[in-house]
Amino acid sequence: MLYVTFIDPSENEIEANFEPGDSLLQAAVHAGVDGILAECGGGCSCATCHVILSSAWAGTLEPPGPQEADMLTFAVDPTPQSRLACQVQLKTEHNGLTLNVAKRQY
Predict the structure, then answer these.
(1) Within 10 A of 77 (CB to CB), how many other CB atoms are there?
(2) Which residues lie closer than 8 Å to 77 by C-beta, 6 or more apart?
(3) What is the pLDDT of residue 62?
(4) pTM over 0.90
(5) Which of 6, 32, 85, 103 could form a disulfide with 24 if both were Cys (CB 3.0 to 4.6 A apart)?
(6) Are 102 and 10 within 8 A, CB to CB?
(7) Rounded distance, CA 75 to CA 6, Å?
(8) Nearest to 4 by CA among 83, 69, 92, 102
(9) What are the chain's domains?
(10) How far is CA 91 from CA 9, 25, 60, 103, in A?
């Protein structure tokens, strides 16, 4: 089974299984990851699924599109590795990806 590891705001590591084509948000919700609010339900209109990729994985995902980049300006303390979990589509090569859930979502 393919998995990603979320580090929640309390520093707990949660492994979340995924199928290729799932979003990070889907994996997080299915695994019950704390700190992912996703108030818009994955519509890229709220920035409450803000995650920060481990620098080891930088450049392995498609870059944010214009809408995601715009929404990230509303995230709390975005970094160059910040992404919205609803916009990251997972592939087989993302098996083992590690990321942090933003400490604050609003």
Answers:
(1) 10
(2) 102, 103, 104
(3) 87
(4) yes
(5) 85
(6) no
(7) 18
(8) 92
(9) 2-101 (3.10.20.30)
(10) 25, 14, 10, 26
Q: b or e along 93-105 (b: 16 or more beta carbons within 10 Å of the residue's beta carbon)?
A: ebeebebbbbeeb
Structure tokens at 9: 């705001």
pLDDT tens column, 43-54 = 998 999 999 998
- What is the C-alpha separation between 30 and 58, in angstroms, rounded? 24
pLDDT tens for the chain, 106 residues: list them. Answer: 899 999 999 999 999 999 999 999 999 999 999 999 988 889 998 999 999 998 888 788 889 999 999 999 999 999 999 999 999 999 999 999 999 999 988 6
If you write DSSP's letter for every residue of the chain in order, what string do you get?
Answer: -EEEEEE-TTS-EEEEEE-TT-BHHHHHHHHT-TT---TTSSSSSS-TTEEEE-GGGTTSSPPP-HHHHHHHTTSSS--TTEEEGGG-B--GGGTT-EEEE-S---
Q: Which amino acid is at 23?
A: S
